Amino acid sequence: MTLHLPNEVPKGALITDTHAHYDDKRYNEDYDGLFSALAEKGVDRIINCGCDIKSSEKCLDLSDKYSLCYTAVGYHPCNLPKGDINLSKIEELAQHKKVVAIGEIGLDYYWHDDNKQAQKKAFREQLSLARRLSLPVIIHDRDAHSDTLDILKETKPVGVVHCFSGSKEMALEAVKLGMYIGIGGVLTFKNARKLVEIASTVPIERILLETDAPYMAPEPYRGKTNNSALILFVAQKLAQIKNLPCEKILEITHKNAEELFKF
Ligand code: NI
User: Which of 21, 100, 113, 122 could form a cystine bridge with 261, CB 3.0-4.6 A?
Assistant: First the structure.
């Protein structure tokens, strides 16, 4: 794997990547080298999001070994088992001191539109577990905006809608409910008009930066393997949109992440 890194990072900048998947096997070769290279570029904290029991456990292993790694545990809507989810196992994993959220959980009707009821059930069960454990949630919503918003209104969780792809109206409703909006590499893509408008409308205090690594690398590395240092390019784009210095964007979003996840 080639590690693409930005040349210059603002002095003293601290980057929190609120959504990544470093359990992905393309990173396996050299975790020591990877995380020390990222730390040198100002990456301060990374939340690895589990997609099922096995990946949640692997993310926890990374948290045990690397001080900058934190973990969210849960079932991604694309990784649901045939029968019920093992909620008590998620609860057990959530006792680990570096678990900062339940996630990633949610609805995905793009890849799976034949099990909507099962997805909604697993989503609701994990939302209520998060509430019981007083943990925030990391939400995945792909082509399921209206059902996601309905469930948010009904359950009023604390958390983030990651890689936000809904409408501006939905973003503002989610913010009104107390949610954060997760923004990553898509913001830098040429066809990102809708997301640019959302980013200009949502208050900066409600925005979290993320990679979704290994996916969603920003320009100029679109299509390559993503990493947390490339968040700088997302921050630079957001700085243009918000008419603020990039340093300020990094500082505020870093603080937003601290407030939500209480590392
Ligand atoms: Ni993800």
Answer: 100
Task: Identify residues whose C-beta is under 5 A from ligand 1, the ion.
Answer: 212
Torsion of Cα atoms, 209 then 215 then 218 then 219, to 10°: 180
Q: 15 forms bridges with which residues in the sheet?
A: 43
Q: Flag whether 53 is in a domain.
A: yes
Domain count along the chain: 1
Task: For residues 183 and 160, give the distance between their C-alpha atoms in angstroms, rounded to a whole number.
Answer: 10
Q: Which pLDDT score is estimated for 111?
A: 95
CA of 2 to the centre of ligand 1 (A): 21
Distance 70 CA to ligand 1 centre (A): 14
Ligand 1 midpoint to CA 212 (Å): 5
CA–CA separation, 155 and 122 (whole Å): 14
Separation of CA 25 and ligand 1 centre (Å): 15
Tens digits of residue pLDDT in 123-161: 999 999 999 999 999 999 999 999 999 999 999 999 999
* CATH code of 28's domain: 3.20.20.140
The model's pLDDT over 32-59, given as tens digits with 9 standing for 90+, comes to 999 999 999 999 999 999 999 999 999 9
Q: Which residue has the tokens 């792909």?
A: 142
Closest by CA to 205, choosing from 263, 253, 137, is 253
**Residue 8 falls inside a structural domain:** no
Rounded to the nearest angstrom, the distance between the alpha carbon of 179 and the centre of ligand 1 is 17
Which residues is 108 bridged to in the sheet?
142
Query: How buried is residue 260: exposed, middle or buried, by Cβ count under 10 Å (0-12/13-18/19+)?
Result: buried
User: Quick check: is 9 in a domain?
Assistant: no
Q: What spacing in Å lies between the alpha carbon of 210 and ligand 1's midpoint?
A: 9
- The answer to whether residue 8 scores a pLDDT higher than 90 is no
| Containing structural domain, residue 42 | 15-261
